[in-house]
Design a protein that fits this description.
Oligomer: single chain
Helix content: 55-70%
Structural class: alpha+beta
Number of domains: 1
Radius of gyration: 41 Å
Number of helices: 10
Shape: elongated
Number of strands: 6
Distance between the termini: 58 Å
CATH class: Mainly Alpha
């Protein structure tokens, strides 16, 4: 029995420890953000995106209302009236007031039979407008995705800057210790020692600035995502080496032709141009007669007929009606004519906007292709410069350790290496970003 009790207690204790650890692991994982997750969260939380979703819902209601306009309208009316009359007897003397009550019930319906296809065209236009706002929402999401991508890469870049600054401090700390030993042995002057010490202080300031830039980049990313700023926020660090120089030779025209078929802003501009054509058709419909069919039914009751009860009167007083009405426009103060002219101006404006959207897309793609070519060249040049500078630094470092060069000459070469490393790091992230922008126009989902 004691053995079973011990086993039970041990099991409970184990589970008690296990589950909190599991929950803590889940909480830790929940704070690590991939680029895809950042983009998805931004799409959910961004106010502009959420507003665009409301616009879609609003236009869905408008589309439904446009279709409902073809249906007949039905309305009912009930009225209750009281009246009084002053009565007189046969001698002309007043007999006081006597009252009557009247009830009336009416049911009426009306439906448009012909209106120059105005309602039909409004339905088609409402459908186009619904599709347009959906595409506008996609455009907003794409813009947010690019902003998140840029901010995400800025965080990675800032982290690399911090790591590089820390490595430089570690290296310079060792060099300062060596310089201190030589100063003690009077091998170098106090000036040489102070040069190395000053360099270490400068690198500590560089590290502090790098950490500040990292924090600014993190905050910027969280704010773009509409995520409350928190110290628990951390991102996944993807392997960017596979993203580096792919030796692409992008053709702007080929990318542009692909983008024309997939980019939402292009489709939206095309739909808006098509919708403008319906404005003209809707305006011209007012030149034509409108035909309506009307139907109705009414009945009533009056207390003046004392020999007839309420329901008998209602039944006997039923009066159905049906009619056809035609409204023929003759002169409307040029309103219809001017509405048509305005619609035609709107068509030209929509066509110009369509051209402008395509031109802006073409220019952006041309710039993206140029950026890729330039970024590739800069990255290759940066690698070559860094390799050469690193070789020079390693040789200078060996000489410095052996006391063959002074601290000033060594630090000049070291600073050249730091600058080359910084240029290479910047060209690396510029290249990755340029590739992602080009992929974006080619329809490749944004990811790292």
């Amino acid at each position: 029995m004691k053995t079973k009790t011990k086993i039970l207690i041990s099991t409970v204790a184990f589970l008690t420890v296990l589950f909190p650890l599991k929950n803590n692991a889940q909480q830790a994982d929940s704070t690590v953000w991939t680029l895809t997750r950042c983009i998805g969260y931004a799409h959910e939380q961004n106010i502009e995106v959420r507003s665009s979703v409301l616009n879609i819902k609003s236009n869905e209601v408008g589309f439904d209302q446009a279709k409902s306009q073809k249906l007949p309208s039905v309305s009912g009316a009930i009225s209750q009236n009281f009246s009084w009359q002053k009565g007189e007897d046969t001698y002309g003397a007043s007999t006081g007031y006597s009252g009557n009550s009247n009830n009336n019930y009416q049911l009426s319906s009306s439906m448009s039979l012909s209106n120059g296809y105005k309602l039909t065209n409004k339905v088609k236009q409402a459908e186009l407008e619904l599709e347009s706002v959906k595409l506008n929402s996609e455009t907003i999401k794409e813009n947010i995705s690019l902003q998140v991508l840029n901010a995400f890469l800025q965080v990675l870049y800032a982290e690399e800057q911090v790591k590089n600054a820390q490595k430089q401090i570690e290296s310079t700390t060792e060099q300062l210790a060596l310089a201190n030993e030589r100063l003690t042995l009077s091998i170098i002057s106090k000036s040489d020692y102070l040069q190395v010490k000053s360099e270490l202080a400068s690198e500590k300031l560089t590290l502090a600035n790098a950490r500040s830039q990292l924090e600014i980049a993190r905050i910027s990313l969280m704010q773009i995502m509409e995520l409350p700023v928190t110290t628990a926020f951390d991102i996944v660090r993807p392997d960017l080496e596979k993203e580096l120089n792919q030796m692409r030779e992008p053709e702007a025209q080929a990318v542009f032709e692909t983008a024309l078929g997939i980019k939402p802003q292009v489709k939206s501009a095309e739909i808006n141009a098509e919708s403008a054509l319906f404005d003209e058709k809707i305006a011209k419909a007012d030149f034509y007669p409108s035909v309506f069919v009307n139907a109705g039914m009414g009945t009533g009751y009056t207390s003046a007929f004392v020999n007839s009860n309420y329901f008998d009167q209602l039944g006997n007083s039923i009066s159905p009606s049906v009619g056809l009405s035609v409204s023929i426009p003759i002169f409307q103060k040029n309103q219809v004519k001017n509405n048509v002219k305005l619609a035609q101006i709107g068509i030209e404006s929509a066509e110009l906007n369509q051209i402008n959207v395509k031109n802006q897309l073409r220019k952006s793609i041309e710039q993206a292709c140029t950026d890729v070519n330039s970024a590739q060249e800069q990255y290759e040049a940066g690698k070559e410069k860094y390799t050469a500078t690193e070789e020079s630094y390693l040789l200078a470092e060996e000489k410095f350790k052996n006391g063959l060069i002074n601290s000033i000459d060594f630090l000049v070469i070291k600073n050249s290496l730091i600058l080359a490393e910084s240029d290479l790091l910047q060209s690396k992230f510029n290249l990755v970003f340029s590739y992602k922008i080009l992929d974006f126009y080619a329809g490749v989902p944004i990811s790292l």
